[in-house]
Specification:
mainly alpha, two-stranded antiparallel ribbon, 2 strands, about 70% helix
Length: about 525
């Protein structure tokens, strides 16, 4: 009788807590699973790992509550997500607006096309070099300060770039262009690395979803940037596009300094360097997949327009063809992130995405290895559609798998690790974005477009096959360690909150195990 009375009182206290805070789960949901499984079930990085338990919280009606919901997101996180999305849109617009008119202006200053291409390429090269550095020292610098200062630097450099038409022709103009783009790339590297790390820390169970949303803002900015640049250039000359978007970025930095909530970016002192991430086979394979995906984004920039002219398309039609892939990528990225977070299948999505992109490139060539695809407008449209849809499938879940790989080799689930992973992700992406236009132009010049596309198909096939082999080895052998659930932030926060409950004067000792908390909803 005493035991029944104690159980009844414990259950009643739990129901009272659930009524006060709907995010506290009832013990009725969890009483059938063990304590280790409880610790693991809310960790977003469990993915489709063979050694992890794939459990999705369900309510009494059987529906899942693990999916990302903007309406249930706390107000501060909404502000954070909106601020970073809008900054990404403005920054990517600023980065891409010079494409329609800068080459012409540079030619008038005596700059060759080769040097002009390097002015564009140096941006990604600088990010490739500096992103790991920023990621490694993000907790020392401060993530919020890194984000705001990076945005501010981008805005100021954009304004300065708008003054370069006043420079003397020749070498002075070239040097000033390289300096401006280099410093602007430093700012971009800082704010992008900080934004990915902050979002990983604030949305640990929905990393892929929020990164997909961020990619949507970035993709839209990259798409509309050339159009905005052309309109402003026609309205006010060379400087107006840079003055306008640079000023907007400076204002965004100032507003973010006051509107962004305080970021808890503390972490234990670094006991491992970023190079240790490359000890993880999963991180290495994922890095290859990121480089291949970014390579695909930049491959067509210097090569595809000339290829489409063989179909006798107008300039407007060629421009519309260029919008198909990036447009679909921008709008499907959140969908792939949501699928990866809710279904816990990031590696599966990466495999599907890479094989699908290999198929898409074989149509766009068409590849000599697929002679059944004709070089016709319908194959080009279909190839661009497939590429735009499945590029997000192969790219968006990669950040999640990088985190999984880091945890597998002993990295702690804290902001220090998020910063390192963010630096590695952005470095690999920028390397691919740098190699895409460069490798695309060189390969088309030497072996022509169909065989150059065939090389891209091979890269995607190798990346997808490597991930397949990794998944097979992970499933059927013990040589790959599982993601440690007990040391994750979710497990730590759950234990910490249970300690708070046990210490509370309103909860007796016999009620200490009464509740289970969801990490996302604990402040």
């Amino acid at each position: 009788m005493a035991s029944n009375s104690s159980d009844s009182r414990r259950h009643q206290k739990t129901m009272d807590l659930v009524d006060e805070d709907p995010h506290i789960q009832s013990p009725d949901v969890d009483h059938q699973i063990g304590p280790t499984t409880k610790l693991m079930k809310n960790y977003g990085g469990m993915s489709d790992d063979a050694n992890n338990v794939d459990i999705v919280n369900k309510d009494n009606n059987g529906t899942t509550d693990d999916a990302f919901s903007f309406s249930r997101t706390p107000r501060q996180q909404k502000i954070l997500l909106f601020a970073m999305g809008f900054v990404n849109f403005c920054a990517c617009t600023c980065f891409s607006l010079l494409a329609p008119f800068y080459p012409t202006e540079a030619a008038l200053k005596g700059v060759s096309e080769t040097v002009t291409g390097f002015v564009f390429a140096v941006f990604e090269l600088v990010i490739f070099i500096t992103a790991p550095v920023f990621g490694n020292y993000i907790t020392n610098i401060g993530s919020k300060f890194m984000f705001i200062s990076g945005v501010m630097v981008c805005g100021v450099c954009a304004i300065l770039f708008g003054l370069l038409d006043k420079c003397p022709d020749g070498n002075i103009f070239i040097v000033m262009c390289f300096l401006s783009r280099t410093v602007e790339a430093l700012g971009a590297s800082a704010y992008i690395t900080a934004s990915f790390a902050i979002l990983s820390n604030e949305f640990p169970n929905h990393v892929a979803t929020v990164i997909g949303l961020l990619e949507t803002f970035s993709g839209i900015g990259l798409m509309v940037g050339p159009t905005i640049g052309s309109l402003l250039y026609e309205a006010g000359g060379y400087g107006l596009p840079f003055f306008t978007m640079g000023s907007i970025l400076v204002v965004c930095a100032i507003i973010s300094a006051y509107s962004m909530p305080k970021i808890n970016d503390s972490g234990t002192p670094k006991r491992k360097s970023m190079l240790n991430l490359l000890r993880s086979p999963l991180c290495v394979i994922t890095a290859v997949c990121i480089i291949c995906g970014a390579y695909a984004l930049g491959f067509f920039d210097p090569t595809y327009a000339k290829r489409l002219k063989e179909l006798h398309l107008t300039v407007i039609q060629i421009g519309l063809m260029f919008l198909i892939g990036p447009g679909l990528y921008a709008f499907t990225a959140p969908l792939w992130g949501w699928i990866g977070d809710t279904k816990k299948l990031p590696k599966t999505l990466i495999i599907i995405g890479n094989f699908a992109m290999a198929f898409s490139f074989s149509m766009l060539g068409p590849s000599p290895l697929t002679p059944f695809f004709p070089f016709a407008l319908w194959t080009q449209i279909l190839g661009c559609v497939c590429l735009g849809i499945f590029l997000g499938c192969g790219l968006i879940p990669t950040f999640r798998t990088l985190l999984d790989g880091a945890l597998q080799i002993g990295f702690e689930d804290n902001f220090v690790t998020f910063g390192m992973v963010s630096g590695l992700f952005n470095s690999c992406f920028s390397l691919g974005a740098f190699l895409g236009p460069t490798g695309g132009g060189l390969s088309v010049d030497h072996i022509h477009f169909p065989w150059a596309v065939t090389i891209c198909c091979g890269l995607f096939f190798i990346a997808g096959s490597a991930m397949v082999i990794y998944c097979i080895v992970e499933k059927f052998s013990d040589c790959i360690p599982p993601v440690p659930a007990a040391t994750t932030k979710n497990g730590y926060d759950r234990l910490q909150m249970e300690e708070i409950i046990r210490d509370s004067p309103e909860v007796s000792d016999e009620d200490e195990n009464v509740t289970v908390f969801d990490r996302d909803d604990v402040v």
